[in-house]
């Protein structure tokens, strides 16, 4: 550790201590999510888009920068802060699921969040069951017909 005349430690990324030759590290960002998964339950396939917010905090001591987000299908849209999130500050990652772009039935979708945080990547999941209302109405009519016969 390199000491200044006043006795305070100097921490700078990439600087080496002349005495020991060790590299000193600057502060790190830490992406701390409240939760990493969400279950939408039953959703109508043609009922419009649904959204969920994933709140997070930068629990580190350096600004957090989300570099990009990658989804597992085109039925997901992701929005996240484009500016650095200061240490101790909070923000939100929003995921929009478009059920009409997927087949009816159960779904389990992933979003990878890449950032300058210490771990570099977080995975968010959304799941649920998409119901095709037209198919459900036909099935109910068939079931009622079977009961009468």
List keywords for this structure.
four-stranded mixed sheet; four-stranded antiparallel sheet; mainly beta; 8 strands; single chain; 1 helix; disordered N terminus; 149 residues
Précis, in short:
This protein has one helix spanning 133-148, and strands at residues 31-33, 37-44, 50-58, 66-71, 76-79, 90-97, 105-115, 121-131.
Give a description of the structure.
Helices cover 11% and strands 40% of the residues. The protein is mainly β and 149 residues long. The chain is built from one helix and eight strands, in the order ββββββββα. The chain has one helix at residues 133-148, and strands at 31-33, 37-44, 50-58, 66-71, 76-79, 90-97, 105-115, 121-131. The N and C termini lie far apart (86 Å).
Task: Detail the topology: elements first, then pairings.
Blueprint: E1 31-33, E2 37-44, E3 50-58, E4 66-71, E5 76-79, E6 90-97, E7 105-115, E8 121-131, H1 133-148
Parallel strand pairs: 2-8
Antiparallel strand pairs: 1-3, 3-6, 4-7, 5-6, 7-8
How large is the radius of gyration?
24 Å
**If helices are DSSP runs of H or I spanning 4 or more residues, what is the number of helices?**
1
Spatial shape: elongated
Distance between the termini: 86 Å
Annotation, overall tally of beta strands? 8
